[in-house]
């Protein structure tokens, strides 16, 4: 994988082949390590609890049969699948392979429901959706490797081309994947509405991405990646109600599929009625 990163980073040092907007992407801030010592799990041995985080190799690759990958596409899809997992090894990026699997899983749930009720969903090529979910963060990681502004469309196209992905697939994936961000969806509502109307696959992919920031795992991810640095982590403890009630409520409104909206509503309901209610009970110190 290192050779791929280096080769693409080298290509990015020359002028872009297309005249498109350049993006200067910031590096990830290092996560503060509060304790490097593994926890003492002797008291819970034999109770089926594993506190050791799995390595990327322990996380299974996406299942070709469950995703109904055609024989003609299996080799390059597998190569991309492995490359995406390898790219996240040893990194502190928010988009590790476990997260990518969850995004693809979200997309599979959404597509499975939408095809039963909507003609537009039945016309989609699932392969475009799976690959877009897998690589939408790749361009940012490779741009960081280049350490300079670069064209994300070129990055994704070059990355997929390196593993034999057909031109018709990789161009569609690159065009959609560069637009999969929370910021674009929440703050460029008008343009993205037009884009999702023209490219319906984006509806499924973006909804799957937004769902990844909600629910139990979403809360943990938020604190891990946005609340790891003082004084932000203490400020977040005070502002958790606003985070859930205001900010994450916008995710529900941003959903572009009926299934995605229902899933988002369920996760937001749990966050408000279960997590937040318990949080507020524990934070109540009015008795002293």
Automatic annotation (TrEMBL):
Organism superkingdom: Eukaryota
SUPFAM superfamilies: HD-domain/PDEase-like
Family matches, as Gene3D superfamilies: 1.10.3210.50
Name recorded for this polypeptide: Uncharacterized protein
